[in-house]
Every structure is written in structure tokens, then in C-alpha cells.
């Protein structure tokens, strides 16, 4: 890997670093137990900054593809070669990890959406609605919906006007992005999402924190359970 030089586009650098590291693991160039190059070496190879490398490493660690141990470096997780295809295909997230991610998102985004219902300005509401309609347009044109989906959730977060909560959601952005990629992989993935988002938008516009929270919980639980069901079907093949 030392001689390889990766050209990364300037859009979503950390996402692309994570994707390419997953490809290296999937095709066997990085094997279970292998130690990854140093942070500085990865920065050189991928031609990106330190923050992009750390975000990508953090995301892959969170979903269980790599392990990070102080004083021991960063290693590819020790999982069986037989299971690597399915593991990479489902971004390394097992059903328990999905449940944990759903649980974390619900706890975090419920706090966010409740504050958004109370604090969102007219400008914020217009931005939320704009991102919501952008998803509708993407779905109607069969365009990639992931960016619009994530932008919607980030617009809601910004409208809560709490920088710490916004930062927490940004830290989860990488695994959330990959989770959304898996939702898009299956036919069921985005069919109900627009209507679920609509319920969230209306509750925020009506300043109804309770209803906004319930709509968000329903949305995230539904998405999580659908993905877990799809993963089970994949495992059973």
C-alpha cells in the first residue's frame, strides 16, 4: 500500500477515504489483523487533510471494520475471511450495530428536533422545507437520494441552535451516510421516507415538539428495522 497514491475528489473527502479503505479490505489488500499506515502516511496516500483521515477512521471503527488501540495503532478488525464479502457489502455493520446506531440517532435527534420545534426561525423553516422538497425531486427523478436525505437531517439540526448537539450529529455523519447508502441499496429503502420527513416538517412548523419527536422516532425505527430485515435476508442467501 505504501507505493499507492489515491486521487480523491474534493467532495465528501472522508466518505471517499472510508469507501476506498473498505475496498482495500474487501479485495484483500488489507487483511484482518493488518496494521494501517500512520496517519501522516494515509494523508499522503489519499492526498487529504488530517481531519478527513480521522473522520474516516472513526467511522470505520464505529461500524467494526477496524480497531483503534492507543499505543498499538490502527488495525483491520479480526473477522473471518469467509464472512468478509457480506461484511463489506453491508458496510461492516451487524444487526446489533444497526440497533445501537438507531438508538444513538433517536436519543440525539429527538433532543435536536424538540429544540428545533421551539427555536427554528422562519429562515430555518424555509431551509428545512427546501431540503425536504429536494428529496422529493430526487426520488421523482430516480436520482441518488442520500445527499438530500442527510441534508434534511442536518438542516433540522442547525435549526435547533445548539452547537454541541449539531457537532455530535456531525460526528455521526459518516456512519449515518453509510447507513443511508445501505437503505438506498434496497427497493424499499426510500419509498416511505418522504412521507415520514413530511410528518417531521409539519410538526416543527406547528411548533409541536412532542409530535416532532414521535415522528422522528417512528422514522428512524422504521428505517432501522427495514435495514435489519434486509440484512437478515442477505445472510440467509
Describe this structure in words.
The chain has 237 residues and is mainly alpha-helical. The protein has two domains: 75 residues, Arc Repressor Mutant, subunit A (Orthogonal Bundle); 144 residues, GntR ligand-binding domain-like (Four Helix Bundle (Hemerythrin (Met), subunit A), Up-down Bundle), CATH 1.20.120. It has eleven helices and two strands. The protein has a two-stranded antiparallel sheet. β1 and β2 form a beta hairpin. α5 packs antiparallel against α8. It is globular and about 55 Å long. The relative contact order is 0.12.
Question: What's the structural blueprint in terms of helices and strands?
Answer:
Blueprint: H1 13-26, H2 39-46, H3 50-62, E1 66-69, E2 73-76, H4 84-89, H5 95-119, H6 122-140, H7 146-158, H8 163-171, H9 173-185, H10 193-205, H11 209-236
Antiparallel strand pairs: 1-2
Amino acid at each position: 500500500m505504501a507505493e499507492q497514491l489515491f486521487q480523491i475528489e474534493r467532495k465528501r473527502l472522508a466518505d471517499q477515504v472510508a469507501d476506498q479503505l473498505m475496498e482495500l479490505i474487501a479485495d484483500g489488500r488489507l487483511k484482518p489483523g493488518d496494521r494501517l499506515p500512520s496517519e501522516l502516511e494515509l494523508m499522503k496516500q489519499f492526498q487529504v487533510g488530517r481531519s478527513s483521515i480521522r473522520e474516516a477512521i472513526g467511522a470505520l471503527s464505529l461500524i467494526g471494520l477496524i480497531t483503534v488501540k492507543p499505543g498499538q495503532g490502527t488495525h483491520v478488525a479480526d473477522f473471518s475471511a469467509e464472512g468478509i464479502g457480506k461484511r463489506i457489502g453491508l458496510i461492516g455493520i451487524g444487526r446489533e450495530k444497526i440497533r445501537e446506531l438507531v438508538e444513538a440517532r433517536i436519543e440525539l435527534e429527538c433532543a435536536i428536533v424538540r429544540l428545533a420545534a421551539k427555536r427554528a426561525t422562519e429562515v430555518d423553516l424555509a431551509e428545512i422545507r427546501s431540503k425536504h422538497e429536494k428529496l422529493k425531486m430526487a426520488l421523482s427523478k430516480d436520482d441518488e437520494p442520500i445527499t438530500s436525505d442527510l441534508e434534511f437531517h442536518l438542516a433540522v439540526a442547525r435549526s435547533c441552535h445548539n452547537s454541541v448537539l449539531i457537532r455530535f450529529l456531525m460526528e455521526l455523519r459518516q456512519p449515518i451516510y453509510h447507513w443511508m447508502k445501505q437503505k438506498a441499496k434496497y427497493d424499499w429503502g426510500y419509498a416511505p421516507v418522504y412521507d415520514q420527513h413530511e410528518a417531521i416538517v409539519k410538526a416543527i412548523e406547528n411548533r409541536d415538539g412532542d409530535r416532532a419527536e414521535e415522528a422522528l422516532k417512528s422514522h428512524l425505527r422504521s428505517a432501522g428495522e427495514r435495514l435489519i430485515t434486509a440484512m437478515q435476508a442477505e445472510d440467509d442467501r
